[in-house]
Amino acid sequence: MIKRIELMNDWRFRLTDNDAFExxxxxxxxxxxxxxxxxxxxxxxxxxxxxxLTIPKLLxxxxxxxxxxxxxAYAKVYVDGEFLGEHKGGYTxxxxxxxxxxxxxxTHQLRVFVDATEREDIPPFGGQIDYLTYGGIYREVSIDIxxxxxxxxxxxxxxxxxxxxxxxxxxxxxVSETEAEGHLRVNLVDQKGALVATNETVLRVEAGDQWVQxxxxxxxxxxxxxxxxxxxxxxxxxxxxxxxxxRFGFREAVFQADGFYLNGERVKIRGLxxxxxxxxxxxxxxxxVQEKDADILKSQLHLNLVRxxxxxxxxxxxxxxxxIGLLVFEExxxxxxxxxxxxxxxxxxxVREMIERDWNHPSVILWxxxxxESADNHDFYEKTxxxxxxxxxxxxxxGVRCIDNSEFLEDVYTMNDxxxxxxxxxxxxxxxxxxxxxxxxxxxxEYNGHMYPTKIYDNEERQAEHVLRxxxxxxxxxxxxxxxxxxxxxxxxxxxxxxxxAGDRICYHGVMDMFRNExxxxxxxxxxxxxxxxxxxxxxxxxxxxxxxxxGILPLIVLTNCDYxxxxxxxxxxxxxxxxxxxxxxxxxxxxxxxxxxIPPSKLGEWGMRxxxxxxxxxVNNQLVSTVHMSKNPLPTTLxxxxxxxxxxxxxxxxxxxIVKLLDQAxxxxxxxxxxxxxxxDDESQNLGRIQGPSQFTLQxxxxxxxxxxxxxxxxLRCAINILNMKLASVELAIEIA
Length: 738
Ligand code: GAL
Prior knowledge:
Bound molecules: beta-D-galactopyranose
Radius of gyration: 27 Å
Structural class: mainly beta
Number of helices: 8
Distance between the termini: 28 Å
C-alpha cells in the first residue's frame, strides 16, 4: 500500500427507506439501544449508508481498494450507482477494487446497503444464538492506494525459535497488473527502531498474484515474545514504493496432551470468554475501548488467555493482546446451528478471512474452526480444518464442542464442560469426554455461565456460590495435568436474544457487569497472581449481620494471594487466619476461609448484639500489604466518577468509560444502592461529544458507568456527575481532546 485514507467521518445513514438521512461517524450501530428490555428486531433492518468519495489523483495503473473491516451482517456496495460487490458475514474484512474511472479528483457517491436481519444464509444465523449481532458499519472503512506492482498480504513464521539463533521466513503476496520487475526489501526492526536484519531480492513477475518466499536464515540476539515480556518486532516489506508493515513476535506455542507450552514452558491456561459488546452501542466502540478490554483482562483480572467467543474480534483488541502478552483463542462465527452447503461455504470462507487477517499476531495461539457447540459434521469440518492447515502450519487448530465422543479432526479437543452444577463434580476427566483410548491436547473452553447467572447486585450468598463455582473449576483444571486449562463463561455480562438471559435481554454470566465493573467472582481470577504483581484481598461479604440467611458472615471466603490475613471485629484483637480451602487446594492461591473454627461466633457477636466495624488485613512475608475496612454503619459518603482516560484523540470518533460508584465512609461500595445519577455536559462540550445512552440512570449494586463519545473535534470535554436527592458533592471531569 502507498497510502490509506480513512473514511470514518461524514457518513449519512438511514435505518429504513422511510427515515430521513442523518449525519453519522463510524463506528456506528444501527440503533442506540436501551440497557435492557428491548426488542432485538429493532436493529434488524436493511439500512443505507452514503458518503461522498474524493480520490486523489493517481499515477498510471495505481490501484485503489475500498476496504471494510467489518459490516454486520451483509453488505452490498455501490459507487455512482454501479454495483461494486457484496459480502456475507459481519466479523471479517472485505475489500473491492474501485473502478479506474474513479482515479481522478472528482467526487463520487458511495452507497452501502447493510442488511442486519438474521439471514439464514449467513453464519451465525439460522438457529437461536445467545448473543446479539448489532447491525451497521461498526468497524473501520478506508480507501487503500496501491502501486500497480504491490504487496497485498504477508505471513511470517519463526523457526528454531527456542535456539539461540532463531529463524524467520515469510511469504509475501505480490500482485501485479502487468509483467513487471521490482525491488523487494524486507526489514526486521526492533522496538527501538533499529534494523535487525534485511532481506533483498529483485523480482520479475508475471501479471497476477504470486506468493514470494523470503528467508532471513538464522538471526542472533532475537528477543522472545512471552506473557511477561511480549517483545514485538516490526516487519516492513517494500516492493518499490509499495509497503506492507506488520508486527511480529518470536514465540513457540505448542499444545501437548500434558499441557500447553509457551516457549518451552508449561503454562496452565486461565482464561475467560469475551463478547465484544457494550451497553447501548453494541459492537460500535472505537479503538481505545477495544484495547481497554484487553487491558482489563490481562492487568485487572490477571488472565493469560481470552477466547474471542464466538467470532473474530476487533483488530485493535488483538493488537493490544500482542502488546501486553495476552493469549488468544480466535474462532469463526457460529452458534450450534450448521446451515446448508452454501452456508457452510461462507463459514469456510470465514476461516480463510480470519486467518489471513490475523496470522501475524503472536498472541493468537489457536484457531477455532468449528461452529461453537455444533454437532459433528465430517465433510464440513474436513473443509474448515483443511483450510486452516493450508493457510497456517504453525498454529494449533481447535473447534468448540459440547458433545462427548465427538469426531476429533483438530489438534486440540476444545470442550465446553458445564458439569459443575454445585453438587461436587467440577470438571470431567478428558477421556470420559473424548471417548478415546489415548490422551490428546484437551482444553476446557467454557464452564459456569448459564449454570449460575449472577448479577452484580445479587445477594451475598448467591455471589459467594458464584465465586466458589469459578474457583472450583479452576481448581479442577489446575489439578489435572491432562487439562491444558479452562476458559470460563464469561468475562462480561452481555445483551442477548429473548431466548436466553434473565428475560431482560441480558445474560448475567460475567464475572464483570456490562461496564466491566467487578463482581466478587472477578477476584477468583485476580487473586491467582503472585502478590509481587498485585496483592489481592477481597472478602466475599457486604459486611452486615442480616444480609445472609440465618445472619452473620461466616463462613467467609477471602479471595487473596496474601500468606495470611487477620480479621478484627470492632475493638477486639485481630485474629490471624491462614487456612486455605482444602477442596480448592490446586489453585495457585486458594481462598482463605474464615469459618467458626477460625473465629468463634462469640467473637463476632450473635444475632441481636451490636454490629461492629470489620478490618481485614493481608500479609506477605509478614509485611502488611493490603487492608480492607468495612463499616458497621455504612452511609452514603462519597460519589466517585473515574474516567479511564483524560486525554482523547481528535479527528475521528473516540470514547472513554466513566465508572460511577457510591461509597461509604470506609470507601466501600454501597452494594444495594440504586441512587439516581445525572450526567451533564456543559454547553461547549455538547459540540464535542455526547454521553452514550441515557444521561440519567440508577446505580446497580452501588455502581454503574457510562461512556463519553467524541465527534472528532478538539477541545475540552467537561462533564458533571451528580447524585440526586442526596447532599453529596458532584464530580467534575475534564477530558482533553487533542
Ligand atoms: C454455551 C454457549 C455460550 C453461552 C453459554 C452460557 O453453551 O457456547 O455462547 O450461551 O453456553 O453458559
